[in-house]
Amino acid sequence: MSTSSVPRPTVASTGVPRWPAIVALLVVAVLLALVSNQLTLGPSWVPLAIVLLLLIPLVLSSRRNLHGRRRALGMVALTTVTIAVAASAFFLVQQLLFGSIEPTTLFTGAGAIWVANLLTFAVWYWEIDGGGPAMRRRDGHVSSDFLFPQLQVGDGTSSHGWWPTFIDYLFVAFNASSAFSPTDTLILSRRAKVLMMVQALIAIVTVVVLAARAINTLR
Questions:
Q1: Beta strands 158-159 and 186-187: pairing type?
Q2: 120 and 82 Cβ atoms separated by less than 8 Å
Q3: How far, in Å, CA of 146 to CA of 61, rounded?
Q4: Fewest Cβ atoms closer than 10 Å to its Cβ: which of 1, 26, 51, 140?
Q5: How far is CA 134 from the centre of its chain?
Q6: Measured at the alpha carbon of residue 85, what is the angle toward residues 82 and 87, in degrees to the nearest 5?
Q7: Distance between CA atoms of 54 and 187, rounded to whole angstroms?
Q8: How many other β-carbons are positioned within 10 Å of the β-carbon of residue 27?
Q9: What CA–CA distance (Å, rounded) separates 143 from 166?
Q10: Is there a contact between 59 and 106 (Cβ–Cβ < 8 Å)?
Q11: CA atoms within 13 Å, Cβ hemisphere of 6
């Protein structure tokens, strides 16, 4: 399926709000701050501090329509929390196998990591699809990474009168974290496929850790 014949929208024609992704990043950072230091790479408050540090210039860049700077700052914050979530999943397994972490800490930590993973990759999908929010249009969304069911009406590449909001990408991420695969939305690009594999792997790790701990508790 090719989208090369579809004209790309200009920045001036956009109007996609970014606040849902900013709120999601803040929630992820708060969840990671609440996780035990036994499950984090360094002090658990570091990701929250970085996100808060970038929040003011990110908001100012959004207000001034500095799309390049805004996207760069958003990517720094997103990469930071992604590394933190992946590291927490690794330490979760390490603590289960070799550590002496309290069961309550393990359960709450795994739950927080699962939710943080879900929100983190929802923001990733939101950021990459169609070149990012600054390149997406409300009046004619162009699909290059995800093919939503609504886009399969008509020419199969774009839909006038419909555009994906953050909840649509959150739904895709939820499916990847719970069913470990997409459901009604097709994954088109290689980068989206790689991101979804990483997300599903982290989700599987947290679920397996919870199941293993539950089995040990029942013995």
A1: unpaired
A2: yes
A3: 27
A4: 1
A5: 17
A6: 105
A7: 30
A8: 15
A9: 15
A10: no
A11: 19
